[in-house]
What does this fold into?
Amino acid sequence: MLDTPRLRLPLLALALLTAGLSACSSTPASKSLLDTISPYRFDRVQGNVVTREQVAALKTGMPRAVVKDILGTPLLTSVFHADRWDYVFTFRRQGSPSQERRVTLFFKGDALDHFEADDLPTEAEFVATLKSMPTEGKLPPMEASAESLKKFPPAAKPEPVAPTASRASADYPPLEPLSK
It folds into this structure.
């Protein structure tokens, strides 16, 4: 039933197209082309940044409000695990390895019982990872010499504005009710 002459041509075209497309993905030239051309991917920062200094400030027995002041609002809280707060941080940048860190706090009632944390960076180490990608070549100096400034016309001086009477009382209603 499938061997009708009307279906042979579309099936043959589909088979040739499939074979042709599968052959394109296995050639070394196409892989090198795909490696050099890639779409721009923006930096993704998600979660709470928790540094080594912040975790060092935590002490067992601290109330939840103090912990929240130090670390901020937890990213994950669960109705089923009310005595557990999770702080998760991910940072993905094109051309550099992604960063992922977790800090989990456990409470007994309102007091901090204990916590578990990944190897966290110091504030200085974290800021160093945020610096943009290195630029190629030397950047030109960002200052103008006296000769280059002479090329531009002098700035026009603004004309003095005559003081006007205050119209605030005429244009706007009073902020407070007038008392007699």
About this structure: The first helix runs from residue 5 to 24. Residues 44-130 form a domain with the Beta-lactamase Inhibitory Protein; Chain:B, domain 1 fold (CATH 3.30.1450.10). The chain has a mean pLDDT of 79.
